[in-house]
Amino acid sequence: MLKNYFRIAWRNLMRQKAFSAINIIGLAIGMMCSIFILLWVQHERSFDRFHENAGEIYRITETMPGLNAALSPAVMPPELQAKLPVIKNMVRITYPSKLILEAGTNKFMEEGAHYTDTTFLQVFSFPLIQGNRATALSRPDAILITRDMAKKYFATEDAMGKTLRVNGDKNAVVTGVLENIPANSHFRFDFIMPFSASDFATEAIKAASWDNFDFLAYLQLDKNFKSSPGNVADLETQINTIYREHIPRENLDVEFHLQPLTGIHLGASYVGDFPGHGNALYVRIFFIVAIFVLGVACINFMNLATARSARRAREVGLRKTVGAGRAQLIVQFLTESVFISFIALCIAIFLAWLLLPLFNDLSGKQITVNFFEGKMIWLLAGIALLTGLVAGSYPALFLSAFNPVKVLKGNVTKMSSNLTLRNGLVVLQFSVSILLLVGTLVVYKQLRFIKNMNLGFEKENLVYMPMMGNLQSKKEALEIALQNNMLTADYTIIGGLPTNLMNATTDIIWEGKDPNMKGLFSNVAADGAFFDIFQMKLLSGRTFFKNSSADSNNYIINEKAAGIMGFTPESAIGKPLTQWGIKGMVVGVVRDFNFKPVQQSIEPLIIRHLNSSGYVVVHTKPGKTEATIQALEGMNASLNSETPFSFGFIDQDLDNLYKGEQQMGSLFNVFTMLALFISCLGLYGLSAFLAEQRKQEIGVRKVLGASVLNIAYLLSSNFTKLVLIAMVIAIPVSWLAVNSWLDSFAYRTDISWVIFFIAAVAALLIAWITISYESIRAGLTNPVKALRSE
Question: Measured between alpha carbons, how far is 56 from 751 in angstroms, rounded to an integer?
Answer without folding.
Answer: 44
